[in-house]
Specification:
This protein has one helix and five strands, in the order E-E-E-E-E-H. The strands form two sheets. It has a three-stranded antiparallel β-sheet with strand order 1-2-5, with no helix packed on it. Strands 3-4 form a two-stranded antiparallel sheet. Strand 1 and strand 2 form a beta hairpin. The longest helix is centred in the last third of the chain and has 13 residues. The termini are far apart. The structure holds zinc ion.
Length: 73
């Protein structure tokens, strides 16, 4: 089981959210499912996965950290 986290910025409402993905490395069957913004429901992209994922709005602290990191680039 692989788990990783993507941070996304919604194309529609500019809010940050995270996509926590869980995948079975051995499974050959992938399904394509939409990933929707948890703030506004916008379909951000489609994901081919052999597992599942969850989307969460970022907490205020996480948003602050993200914005601080971006300024350093
Ligand atoms: Zn949105």
């Amino acid at each position: 089981m692989n788990t990783w986290i993507d941070i996304e910025v919604c194309d529609n409402c500019d809010e940050l959210f995270k996509v926590v993905r869980h995948e079975f490395p051995t499974s050959g069957t992938k399904e394509i499912e939409p990933v929707n913004c948890p703030h506004c429901g916008h379909r951000q992209y489609e994901l081919a996965t052999s597992g599942w994922w969850e989307t969460y709005p970022l907490t205020e602290d996480e948003v602050r950290n993200m914005r601080a990191n971006k300024k350093m680039k």
